[in-house]
Design a protein that fits this description.
This protein has 329 residues and is mainly β. The protein folds into four domains: 2-102, no CATH class; 106-189, no CATH class; 191-253, Alpha-Beta Complex (Type Iii Antifreeze Protein Isoform Hplc 12), CATH 3.90.1210; 257-321, SH3 type barrels, CATH 2.30.30.760. Helix content is 15%, strand content 40%. A hairpin with a 5-residue loop joins strand 13 and strand 14 (165-173).
Length: 329
Amino acid sequence: MTRVFFTRLIVATLIAMAIAAAIATRPAAAEALLKRDVTVIGDYVTLGDLYDGAGPLAGTPVFQAPDPGVEGELPVDQAVEAARLAGLPLVYPSFATVRVMRPAATIDEAVMEALVREAAALRVAARPDDVAVTFETMLEAIAADASAAAPAVLVSFALQTQTGRFSARVAVDVGTTSRTVDLTGTAVETITLPVVSRPLAKGAILSSSDVVMERIDRRRVPRGVMTDLSQAVGMAARRPLRAGDTLLPTDLDAPRLVARNELVTIIFRRPGLTLSARGRALADGASGALVGVLNEQSKRVVQGIVTAPGVVEVTTGASRIASVGVLTQ
């Protein structure tokens, strides 16, 4: 934002006195050169800001600085007059204006959030990173004095720990004055947990895209909830799950690879030999479960371990397998 700078830069009585004191106590510098572009830190523009070679007079304030974040133009005649009053010899420049800019520290919603998070974390004895802050209204960015040790300071803070509601006031250093901002919203301690990302039907097997890690208000977390994503991925839902649900161990089960009365493949393995036959499972079975299987040919029941969808590996000896009705070898 550019403004006509000379309308804002007035040589005040206090500054004139400082110039007079500088003339009386310091030797004048020689052949000072006016800068075309000036960056100012602080509330005043000094001769050292304006001129190269200002020497002992460099710290002499001559104009009020623009507001933080504001860029303006200073007529050269005014810069020259300020140098003349201070007794600073100079080379008259060939350009007409000096661009003066005062950098700003941007105090935006992220800065405000960090201040509130730190204060809330102290109140609830939590880590700041574990506190989630939500403001009731959108916050506009404020250009603060970049030279200030603390451009924004939290001057008051109140938190209702049961509801998480807070009220706060922040003082922002905008140069010669301070601007206050009142904040309201919620600040709650959170914990990162696996959360269902989309609705899932009973029996659905959870993939890595079905469960995501999210921060949840600690007050809403039931006891015994799952904390590790690996505990959920690959498991089957024992009930319909909604998006946003946290997970308890009782919500999931190992996925069923064999269903009762389902036709399955019975496999026996030993070194150099693999036998297989058709059978009918007598019970549901997840991976690693022991189930009974009725051989369709021999009508004998054998026990086996579920190793894959529709596959049961028999655990009995070779002599019994030989009588199950071998289909392949």
